Amino acid sequence: MSESSTREQPSGLAAVEVKNLRCRRGERELFHIHHWALPASGHGLLQGPSGCGKTTLLHLIAGLDVSAEGQLTVLGEGLLTKGSRQRDRFRARRIGLVFQDFHLLEGLTVEDNLRLAGWLGTRGDRRRPALELLDRLGLSGLARAWPHTLSQGEKQRVAIARALINHPDLILADEPTSALDDDNAEAVIRLLMEEADHHGASLLVSTHDARIADHFPHQLRLGGDR
Ligand SMILES: Nc1ncnc2c1ncn2[C@@H]1O[C@H](COP(=O)(O)OP(=O)(O)OP(=O)(O)O)[C@@H](O)[C@H]1O
Ligand SMILES: [Mg+2]
Question: 122 CA distance to ligand 2 centroid (A)?
Answer without folding.
Answer: 28
